[in-house]
Amino acid sequence: MVARIRRLIVVGVLATVAYSFLIVATRGFCPGGAASDSDLTDDAGTLNGTAPTCISITLRPSPVLHVVIAAIVIVTVASIVIAQVSFMLIPLVEWNGAGTFSYPFPFGAVETVISTPTIP
């Protein structure tokens, strides 16, 4: 169980790092520019003698997604621990061969198989 939780945390960290690297992008645009004789033009190509205004935008990772990934990992680890502890607390040794058990936890599905032992 500990190895699975460790693997989940490592995968969460790797997903966060991959997201941080893959989400980065940048774009820029300058309407107008320079004519062949070094005069400055506007976006329509008209000579105007003034330098064009440029824009640059950058996409970066949102801290909100880092928090969401961390919350998913924390909730998953907590649900694993709650399910395992609840499963171990089922009073199996008190079963008398009749009746059924109640499984009051929502983080796992318990399958019950009742059979007779095979005696050779």
Question: How would you characterize the overall build of this protein?
Answer:
This protein is α+β, with helices and mostly antiparallel strands and 120 residues long. The protein folds into two domains: 85 residues, no CATH class; 27 residues, no CATH class. 39% of the residues lie in helices and 12% in strands. The chain is built from two helices and four strands. It has a two-stranded antiparallel ribbon. The model has no long low-confidence stretch (mean pLDDT 81).
What is the radius of gyration computed over CA atoms, rounded to a whole number of angstroms? 31 Å
Structural class: alpha+beta
Lateral arrangement of strands in the main beta sheet: 1-4
What is the tally of helical segments? 2
Number of strands: 4
**What share of residues is helical?**
25-40%
As a percent range, the share of strand residues is 5-15%
Averaged pLDDT, please? Answer: 81
What is the domain total for the residues?
2
Instruction: State the major sheet.
Output: 2 strands, antiparallel
Report the span from N to C terminus. Answer: 35 Å
- Low confidence ranges: none
Instruction: Please tell me what the overall shape is.
Output: rod-shaped
